[in-house]
Amino acid sequence: MRYSHASKAVVLSAALALTLSACGGGSNDSAGGEADGSYVVTANTTEPQNGLLPANTNEVGGGRVMDLLFTGLVSYDAKGAPVNELAESIETKDSQNYTIKIKSGQTFSDGSPVTAASFVDAWNFGAAAKNAQLNSYFFESIKGFDKVNAEKSKEDKMEGLKVVDDTTFTVELSQPESDFPLRLGYTAFMPLPEAAFEDPKAFGEKPVGNGPYKLTEWNHDVNLKMDINEKYDGPRKAANGGIDFKVYQSTDSAYQDLVSGNLDVLDQIPPSQLASYQSDLGDRSVNSPYAGNATITIPGYLDHFKQDEEGNLRRAAISRAIDRQLIIDKVYQGGKVIAKDFTAPVLEGYDDKLPGSEVLEFDDAEAKKLWADADKISKWDADKEFSIGYNVDGAGNKEFVEAIVNQLKNNLGINATAKSFSSFKELRAKVTAYTMTGGFRTGWQADYPSLYNFLGPLFGTGAGSNDGKYSSKEFDESLAKGLAATDPVEGAKIFNESQEILFKDLPAIPLWYQAVQGGWSENVANVEFGWNGVPMYNEITGK
Question: What are the φ and ψ backbone dihedral angles of 99, each rounded to 5 degrees?
């Protein structure tokens, strides 16, 4: 998963309900001149939360860099379709036992070889509890994960992974899962060189990858510079001379740099510019739905919000007290679409009429009743503060969180407050340490095009992106049943049934669906945004 660092706004229409084939957008026009393949593209980002290790990167600040620094068995094209990268073949007869062959002669940017062991060792490292990697949950399907991931376990090798030779390894899952190959383009499944295991922390600061670019400079809170990796031999070869990611504390500042030509690509426009960015940028702007959503998470470890009857009533009351459409109209000038589930409309299997989804509909009278019912179980002190945290370096976060807390004050009569964090990194550090004292804004950008990706990594018991520490045996069993379905249509139906459980417990409160809204300068051409809202950085050229 990737946590979205900002609330991305765009004027949408019924097109948001289209399939992935409608996603993307951009310019393939080099203004009549020849493309400049030596041009270094500047782009916005936020400071990565952690060192750049595949299994410990689950937010977009680090994710942008990791997707260019590393390449795995597959990657995804602009429409979300998997494309073989290092995989020569991924074969299975039963969707439980996989034989994976990788292309021979591949190397990391330092010249060390990429072998089958590069994958097996990296996955074992990511899964082992002693390494405390945020993405460890992604390996839970592999046989033996439960042993290496158990608390205080000293095991570090999963039974289901076996190296056959330098270019072949096998994977045995705990049960058949037909969509397993689809996940293999996500960051967590990238390979690592042997040097990474000698000192993982130091490696994370100066990572060596095998992708189209290599990281040459990381000036914390300032920028991350990436040059061409000449040793890369795959479908995502760089059409430019490198990427310079600039860390911004304000999207307003980033936008001004874009307009003035000091920034080439911006993947989010601040609310203050929503009314004018299209006229400012003309055909150098994009409006496009992507696989992402925005939510509010209220942790189950907070008093009065435990995973019990009282907690469920209070979360439902807060959901009912939020007038999503009013916020969309006032903050985003009508540029978002109210969420009706926990996934995204651009995904196959999406259903906007799931039983229980009425909890997402605004009803202030019902909200008051639900809150009063919770008070009958355990009284809420009138002076008690309920806060919602947000990061100030994301577009629109301050505005929409303040709007929500004002609605909670008016519709529930509680002391609701907006709590600011200086950066996405600061907010995520508190969230992943489970030390938040209130609710907080969350968002999800898909890792691969599947309903499951919006459910398992966020709400599965023990999942690395399960910020609220939600746990439901019924939900976990339903997910497992969906994964085991050999028919994708049947699998999607089961995943949607799983959501009915989430509507009752509300481990996160869905707000609206995301869309990429961004722009680029007059200095670049061939700008396209992918199915997940991320620019296809390697394709951008100067002009």
Answer: -110, 120
